[in-house]
Amino acid sequence: MQEIDTTRELPPAANPDLRPDLRPDQRPDLREQPHEDTRSPRRWLRLFHWRYIVVYLILIGLVSLAVLPPLVNVSRFKRRIVTSISTSIGRPVHLDNVSLVLLPFPGFKLENFVVEEAPAFGAEPVIRANNVVATLRVSSLWRRKVEFSKISLEEPSINLVHMPGVGLNPGHWNVESILLQAARIPAAPTSQARAGSDPRFPYIEATDARVNIKYGDEKLPLSLTEADLALWLPRPQQWRIRVEGKPTRTDTSASDTGTISLEGTLNRAERFDLIPIDLSGEWKNAPLGEASRVVTGRDAGLRGELRLNATVHGTIGESQVKASLELRGARRADFLPPRSLDLRAECQAKAAETFHAFHQVRCSWPPPPAKSLLALTADLADIHHPAEVPFEIGTPGLPAATLLDWLRVASPRVSPDIAAAGALTGSLTRDAPDNGTGAFSGRFKLQGGSLAGGPIGDSAIALGDVVIASAAPAEVAPQPARANRRYAKPPAAPRPVPGEFVFAPATLTLGGKEPALLEGRFDRNGYTLHLAGNVLPSRLMALAAAIPQFGDGLKSALPAASPVSGPQTKELPIHIDLTSARVWGGEQSWAKTPAKPVKTTRNRRR
Questions:
Q1: Which of 60, 253, 413, 440 could be disulfide-bonded to 548 (CB atoms 3.0-4.6 Å)?
Q2: Closest Cα partner for 536 from 561, 519, 564?
């Protein structure tokens, strides 16, 4: 067949560019004409078939994912799964049914999953979950090994049980054997890309969990609800844990209790108390009223926001603990003070006996590097007996203005316009019960104290040096033997009540020629005050208006003003000798101090 030369030029009649009868604007632009598709119909047919084949394969895959799992019998995997989990944690495991899951990732769904408790810790299961999804590592199937990349527990119930010990033994937790059993099994990190000789530890998570706490056979009202938990192995010898949930107390109506979160690492060890830990926790967005319900079981009548941070580094048996407490807008619930209380304090201690004791407790406010205004030291030998903790709280110089601000937060009756000057120094100590009575003792001194402003006016009332100290034991001098028994033996001075404090005589400039004297005594039941001297009634009542706790009932105890015969513009001082008594929680009353009886001596008749 003769070949056609497609490169030869077209004749003039067929080539528009060579036709002189056409104007330039009539000549077609060959560059704008679409090129003719040179693909053959067979190629179109092949592309058409491949597209439909891909669609068919996708549809078949989707149908298989929806239809095949119920048809595949995975009951033979049930015993293998139960044995594997039971061996890993050292506890019997039960489940009702196992089904195959292909979407979104292939795995198994376990129904009514239960981990039994050790007989020594009770009969209630450690973990109970209605649904557990174990996601497979598909690549492990090629090596004829079954590895799970993730195990998800939906709404599980977890019980943490602590059995009390005897004597110095702090007791044991039910999770001790589980952690030790898991530490004996070699495992590769969770995020390891390629499989090795050791199986890769799965990523274990729990959503919307409830964590209950039991002490012995008694379930405590404290629990953690709506909790999310996660556990994985970032390194061959180290677990990482993350927990976040809401603290709840079942015996109260506490609702908005904030969020507690915990995150850190636990390493492998041969004993539970030797497990190295590095943890950090936080309790945030907790209203003070609801937080007090969780901690004490009742509303303490406080409002504001609580934030607590803590870090633990060491081992479960012994570790260093650092904590930071922050209060924002703290106040009483029954009134709004002119300014609420904001403070932040830091504490550190040495935890021992698996967190059953805290030694060398040191707290300071404000925290370093600022100069400490208030410091606390304590030693908590047993967390189950916090009322017996010996402690000491002291200050190197707390401003009187700060004390006045605290008093305004505690009471709505203090005038918002008065100002205080001076500084408080001293300390308060509580002895351990085994070393004494457990009573309070100490000494505080307010130097350069004064009050001005508000009802007092610009002329300040000087308080002098105010000293409050614990009462010293009464010393009774031995009486010499007398041959003549005509005189009665003088009575011994009364011994002070344990925990009693003495308000040493302090001067008050109340307008008299000499300052008045104020003294008193305090104990756990109440207090008594004694005020004597020359005072201007107006100055005394101004002090009573500035500090109503001092002035309650004072006006009715003052002597009536004497009648004035002529015009008088100057107020004259009066002499007073008054005593007040008050039981804590009761009303205060002032009255004239009764005169002391005059002692007389009469000779006996011979």
A1: 413
A2: 561
